[in-house]
């Protein structure tokens, strides 16, 4: 692996900070690289702060933030292909070998796409409460071709006044974590997300289906799942169905956690992260 110098890291952050780039990457520590991929409309540095604090003692931790989310400058659309392309270019240009990917939610789905690409030399993949096709879980008769930017729901959200949007953010955060501090963070991140990015990038996310890519993954892979709100049995069934194309993986579900496991069950979360890394 070619280690990033302090100068290169500084240039990287300055470039991403002053241009409309699809991703922004912050780097901490040294050693074999780990890329952390956060979820939808989140602040990656905050989501992974405690995890990076532990793993940066032995690894080079590279935390990704996405354009348009949580106060970052937006880019044009379609949004998701630009994110994927930027991540692939970043890995290649920085010659990251023996790369470990850790992704939550949207970040986990992105991790599958990257791990299935043999040119990127991913060595391990850990997924935190993410599915390869979220749209297939929530949309009957799922067909990505039927999902469009110009839809009644999208237009409704785009036209919401700030008070209505803030209430929607509050309602969404309530189901994602049982941590009061975590809920407040999620609300702030959603409110700070560019509105058009929030709407159209979510359409991209629902259209994103990497179930076929699972057949191309033959590296160690672990999934950490949340048992709330529907219970461990249903969560396990959903994971089993969506990951049926994956030959081998380990699945651990915390029955007392909602979607943001790192907020709800931080000790359990770090124990399983360390077990995966070692």
Please tag this protein with its features.
alpha/beta, globular, 7-stranded mixed β-sheet, 15% strand
Textual characterization of the structure:
With 278 residues, this protein is of the alpha/beta class. Helix content is 46%, strand content 15%. The chain has 13 helices and 7 strands. Strands 1-3-2-4-5-6-7 form a 7-stranded mixed sheet, with helices on both faces. Helix 11 links the parallel strand 6 (221-226) and strand 7. Helix 8 runs antiparallel to helix 9. The longest helix is centred in the N-terminal third of the chain and has 14 residues, at 80-93. The radius of gyration is 18 Å and the shape is globular. Residues 1-18 have low confidence and may be disordered.
